[in-house]
From TrEMBL:
This is IS5 family transposase. The lineage of its organism: Bacteria, Bacillati, Actinomycetota, Actinomycetes, Pseudonocardiales. Keywords: Metal-binding. One of its GO terms (molecular function) is metal ion binding. Residues 34-85 form the Transposase Helix-turn-helix domain. InterPro entries: HARBI1_dom (IPR027806), Transposase_HTH_dom (IPR027805). Residues 210-229 are annotated as: Disordered.
Length: 265
């Protein structure tokens, strides 16, 4: 069998966080013997999440059984998901920022039942694909603050943000937020770009934005820019580029990646 070395862009801090959590979990359960050390198990899990390595490939690379890989990954996901911040904790962090950036993104999926139209709730007309909607809160320099649990991809960003309680939390605590036009009407603390005016009854055309309004939109886009960096970083975890497990269990996967992203910042 031939093998080759491979690289993975990941800070030692994220590896250390997962290793420490696994070591504490083993001590708590008084596990006497494992095929891999906590550090090696953490490396295996990061290779699965960051690079999308399959169980079979990991089993070959770490010279363990495929079922053992499955158990190791499930164990780590449970621990990481439990460490993910809640919305209340995220709002506490956001209250110390000058403002936050609110945005939604679609995580594509490929395993969804088609019977009785079950898949329709997961189909995003905007992206023309099945997926899961997640709401992302970032700070002004593009660091992750919070990722919401996933909802079916057909859900509108505004509806998803309200269902998670994000809009109410931002309004209650008076936290300024920058968002796109999907969050129009979200409240006094959520700033959105200027939209084209309604049809002019005399000409039957949309009234164009004034130069001042265009300048405001340009400044708003610069303000929102770092939030796009978080969405891009989220998609750098190849396991999330197309979720191949059941969408009903994707919440644990998203929460685990969130914990590692915050540790990696």
């Amino acid at each position: 069998m031939l093998s080759y070395p491979s690289g993975m862009t990941m800070s030692s801090r994220a590896l250390g966080v997962l290793s420490d959590a696994l070591r504490a979990h083993r001590n708590q359960r008084r596990t006497r013997w494992r095929k891999l050390s906590p550090g090696r198990q953490a490396l295996l899990v990061l290779a699965h999440l960051r690079k999308g390595e399959t169980y079979a490939d990991l089993a070959c690379g770490f010279t363990i059984g495929t079922s053992t890989v499955y158990r190791y990954v499930r164990e780590a996901l449970d621990l990481l998901a439990a460490m993910a911040p809640t919305l209340a904790q995220a709002i506490e962090v956001a209250s110390r920022k000058a403002f936050v950036i609110l945005d939604g993104t679609l995580l594509r999926i490929d395993r969804v039942g088609m019977a009785s139209g079950y898949d329709r709730a997961f189909y995003s007309g905007k992206h023309k694909a099945h997926g899961l909607n997640v709401q992302v809160i970032a700070d002004p320099i593009g660091r992750l603050v919070w990722i919401s649990p996933p909802l079916p991809g057909a859900r509108h960003d505004m509806g998803a943000a309200r269902e998670h309680g994000i809009i109410d939390a931002l309004t209650t605590h008076g936290i300024p937020a920058a968002a796109d036009t999907a969050y129009q009407g979200a409240g006094p603390t959520v700033a959105v770009p200027q939209r084209r005016r309604r049809l002019d009854p005399d000409t039957g055309r949309y009234r164009r934005l004034s130069q001042d309004q265009k300048d405001v939109n340009t400044a708003h886009a610069r303000r929102r820019g770092p939030g796009e960096r978080v969405n891009a970083e989220l998609k750098n975890w190849r396991i999330l580029r197309k979720i191949r497990s059941s969408p009903n269990t994707a919440d644990k996967l998203v929460a685990a990646v969130q914990t590692l992203m915050i540790a990696n910042a």
